[in-house]
Amino acid sequence: MPTHHILSVLVQNRPGVLARVASLFARRGYNIYSLAVAPAEDEGRSRITIVVDVESAPLEQITKQLFKLVEVIKISELDPRRAVERELLLATVRADGTGRGQVVELATIFEAKILAVGVEALTVSLEGHPDKLDDFEELLQSYGIVELQRTGRVALPKLDRQARLRAVKGS
Amino acid sequence: MKLTGAQALIKALEQESVEVVFGLPGGCILPAYDPLLESTIRHILVRHEQGAGHMAEGYAHVTGRPGVALVTSGPAATNLVTPLMDAYMDSIPMVAITGQVPTTAIGSDAFQECDTVGITRSATKHNELVMNGDDLPLAIRQAFHLASTGRPGPVLVDVPKDVLVAPMTWHWPTDDEVVASLPGYRPNTKGHARMIKAAAALILAAERPVLYVGGGVLKARAAEEVRQLAELTGIHVVTTLMARGAFPDDHPLALGMPGMHGNATAVTAMQRSDLLIALGARFDDRITGKVDSFAPEAKVIHVDIDPAEQGKVRRPDVPIVGDCKHVAGELVRIIGELLDGGAARADTSAWRSRVSGWREQFPLTYEPSEPGHALKPQFCLEKLRDAAPEGTILTSGVGQHQMWASQYWNFTEPYTWVNSGGLGTMGFSIPAAIGAKVGRPDRTVWAVDGDGCFQMTAQELVTASVERIPIKVALLNNSYLGMVRQWQEMFYDERYSEVYLSPDTPDYVRWAEAMGCVGIRVESPEEVEPAIEKANSINDRPVVVEFRVDSGEKVFPMVPAGQSNDALVLPPSQSDRKAALS
Ligand SMILES: Cc1ncc(C[n+]2csc(CCOP(=O)(O)OP(=O)(O)O)c2C)c(N)n1
Ligand SMILES: [Mg+2]
């Protein structure tokens, strides 16, 4: 079972940055499991969330190599226990006859949304923790998944308890 | 001030105090060649863009300043890939400027378009496509800053033709603006004080310490601090292929080169050591042999400016991220204070006598040639070394001749050895020698080359002749791709496959003369010294001395690839004493 690590990489938002990051992974022989990129809070910055399959020793090496890229400003490794992670899943599922009610029921249990309704199929969306999406996807499989698309994972560090309370108190 | 992009480019190079660029023009870079006519910058017109890149490297090696290559788009940019990768592997500061098709044509498979930035991404420290003329001065400043600070390396700036032609607003960025424009680039030069203290303590406690000096010491201009550290502590020094000259070979503490073709004492001292003090060295596989069995009892202090080198191959006990000059200087200061304060030192006398025993029993050696038989390449190099004027710079190609040059030369000064270590680029020596001679016109520059290498880049001797750059080439013609022949002899049961060249085709003397050089052929031992003397006396044009040498000669010692350093193969005359290396 490969080990997943989440890297949150803050970069200068410049042409070619993503290619640079991706080619570094390819060249050093690391596998990107999932990737999400979008502009970050500061103007001119993007945040790349990368999920990598590696043991911890090569992970240290890959972060150091990544950090050598001139456009990389900051790298945080997010511990899954101390991070909030989200992913989005879209799936078109076969839903005819008796299966239809069951798919709708499943969607309701998972709090998924039904986005499109066809005679023989439904398109559903679910946003949530990747583990939850895995479960949903597996359960849908028995009805027949016609098409599936999941986004890369995005993640941020969890606010620690103090910061959370402060946020609650609004101070 | 309004300038064209081309004028701004040349002005920016002048602002960076560039005195020479190596290049060759073509369609997309044409606009930049026009203002060059009025510039103080010297342009050296190469015969192949690979030559421009290696010349820039040779220049950078000996001056410490970034070498500059200027070429056009497409095939010229791809011709530059080898020297870029070479400079990247050996951390050579270099700035390459490539022309690109106009911004409006990018992506259309236009004539001589190629994705230069994409192709060179993994062969450069950084690269940039400049889409707007106003950004050119900053891009050039960034390039020089990135190339020459932290761990040095090549930086490429790709400039589309319309950007060179269009008017732009000149603004020369300040140092602060450059730093602010690179928020992710903050190389750490000062080693961590606590780590340096820990290193000092380990050094004083070690019974079998070795200073493992790599090319980073030269990049950091730290040879003086390293000498002080060695002398203060009495620790022996090995200098890797990239660090030859960083510590004088004639120093009593010098053990010479370790690694695959290192001498037996240097290899064994590292193997048996209890503390390796690695300074600007990267535990390359040509040094460590099989990593699992490399220096098994040694603790490791690893000083490197690149944090990614720490633990890449061997986990250090004391990692120190910093500039070798600063860290070695601090080590000298702290160890000096500790010793003055009466700190205890481990007894290293037993180790020192073991090392001198190895040195006595295992000098570098070769069988002298029998009268009437072919010349020995090592003999030619010894004669070349003994006749070399003070301060001679030696460049080398890649192969057996490179190893013999490194082994048999007596390096006494930093920046006198220029070679392709990491990439092992055949054809490096001639263009690198030209760049070195341009950077240090006061020095004699000898290129030691192989017949295989010579045929890869010899055309740059035309450049040298026409530009009056009087380098000297010692061509060790063994009629073979000798290093590959050696591997086939030793590891493929003497089944020689595609390694034979020819002793006399081409005729190297006539070829040299056709290129405007003096050509001299040497076939017997008596001719060696007079030929070298003659070559040393010629200073108005390049000289090629072709030494017809023994094609069967092998480089010893040798650690077979992938094996432990303990599997060192000694020269035949010493192999019966192998047990003494334990
Ligand atoms: C560009 C390139 N191609 C191939 C090699 C592989 N190679 C390493 S040494 C060598 C032989 C070099 O022959 P020569 O220049 O005659 O030197 P010698 O070993 O005979 O001294 C070869 C082919 C290389 N290092 N570089
Ligand atoms: Mg040869």
Most residues in contact: chain pair: A-B, 22 and 18 residues
Structural class of chain B: alpha/beta
The biggest beta sheet of chain A reads: 5 strands, antiparallel
Just name the CATH architecture of the largest domain in chain A.
2-Layer Sandwich
Instruction: Report the CATH topology name of the largest domain in chain A.
Output: Alpha-Beta Plaits
Mean pLDDT of chain B: 98
Task: Walk me through what this model shows.
The complex is a heterodimer of chains A (171) and B (582). Chain A is α+β, with helices and mostly antiparallel strands and 171 residues long. Chain A has 2 domains: 75 residues, ACT domain (Alpha-Beta Plaits, 2-Layer Sandwich), CATH 3.30.70; 72 residues, ACT-like. Chain A, domain 2 (Alpha-Beta Plaits, 2-Layer Sandwich). Chain A has 5 helices and 9 strands, in the order E-H-E-E-H-E-E-H-E-E-H-E-E-H. With 582 residues, chain B is α/β, with parallel strands linked by helices. Chain B has 24 helices and 20 strands. In chain B, the strands form 4 sheets. In chain B, strands 3-2-4-5-7-6 form a 6-stranded parallel beta sheet, sandwiched between helices. In chain B, strands 11-10-9-12-13-14 form a 6-stranded parallel beta sheet, with helices on both faces. In chain B, strand 19, helix 24 and strand 20 form a beta-alpha-beta unit. In chain B, helix 12 runs parallel beside helix 15. The model of chain B has no long low-confidence stretch (mean pLDDT 98). At the A-B interface, helix 1, helix 2 and strand 4 of A face loops of B. Bound molecules: thiamine diphosphate and magnesium ion (MG). The site of magnesium ion has 7 residues of chain B, from helix 20.
